Amino acid sequence: MSAETIKKASAVYFTLLKEKVIDENSEHFQAYFDPDVRQTVLLLADESGTYIIESPKRIQLVVQPTGSVFATNFTHMKEKHKQIETKKHFHLISVVIMAFLASIDRNQAAKIRTKREGISYYALERRVNDLIMNWDAILKAKPAFGEEEKIDMKDVVTTWKYMEVDTDDYGAKKANRRTRIGLIASSMRLLETEGLIIILDRDDIPKVIPKQELFERIEYLYHDYDRYEMFKELMKTEEDEHAENPSN
To answer: Domain range for residue 33?
Structure first.
């Protein structure tokens, strides 16, 4: 392994650490696909507990869920994102993000529609509410629901049910993290920070447009994890009337 190879590989890897994504227009993209450079970058990623996602037009760096020197737990998330105040909010934000992922990770038609039209905060709030009300009904019949999956369903359901329900006046509510729409906004900002979505119409009725990077992460990474598929199953509701047209 030459010094030049190590230099190029280090440049690629540390650019990925900083930017998270390198697209085809970057000089580092071409450098990465040199076999020796690629092997060195993959070695660096493996040693640090990170993972490279390769696609025809970009490469991404993500943290392996099994643990990493760059891993993000609740404490780190709280330090990085001020809107995450408690573990209850952390868990609720996780549910919101997972509900969003489940709504776009369906058939090809749904993917095309969400890339073109997006999903409004209010549509996502309705989806999360349908989901949690469904969980609430299940808990009444099965109090142990969620224990096997290591999810505190009761806490999630109770916290959501007692959050303030927003009116359509988003502008007056958007700064309030303790409202349902405020929670949706906080959750989507996390994905925006990762460069995975675009948020449009922030001052009116905001909506989320998933970027190709997010679809690639779902396809090349999340589908390999049983826990993601388990969560995706939990995201289903009995009457998911809004899933057919998530842009409303």
So the answer is: 3-63
Burial 12-44 (b: 16+ CB within 10 A, else e): bbebbeeeebbeeebebbebbeeeebbebbbeb
Phi first, then psi: what are they for 35, rounded to 5°?
A: -50, -45
Q: What is the pLDDT of residues 166-217, one digit of tens each?
A: 655 555 445 466 788 988 998 898 888 888 899 998 777 899 999 988 888 8
Residues 177 and 218 in one domain: yes
**C-alpha 108 chain-centroid distance:** 19
Q: What is the DSSP letter of 243?
A: T
What count of other Cβ atoms lies within 10 Å of the Cβ of residue 217?
Answer: 20
| pLDDT tops 60 at residue 80 | no
pTM for the whole thing? 0.70
Residues 138 and 86: their CA atoms lie apart, in Å, by: 25
> Strand, helix or coil at 159?
helix
CB 186 within 8 A of CB 83: yes
Same domain membership, residue 80 and residue 156: yes
Same domain, 78 and 174: yes
Rounded Cα distance, 130 and 124, in Å: 10
What residue type is 2 in one-letter code? S
CB 60 within 8 A of CB 20: yes
Rounded Cα gap, residues 240 and 196, in angstroms: 25
Q: Are residues 35 and 103 in the same domain?
A: no
Phi then psi for 53, rounded to 5 degrees? -105, 120
How many structural domains are present in the chain?
A: 2
Task: Give the end of a domain, one of 40, 63, 86.
Answer: 63
Q: Round to whole Å and give the CA distance between 12 and 69.
A: 18
Q: How far apart are CA 178 and CA 45, in angstroms?
A: 38
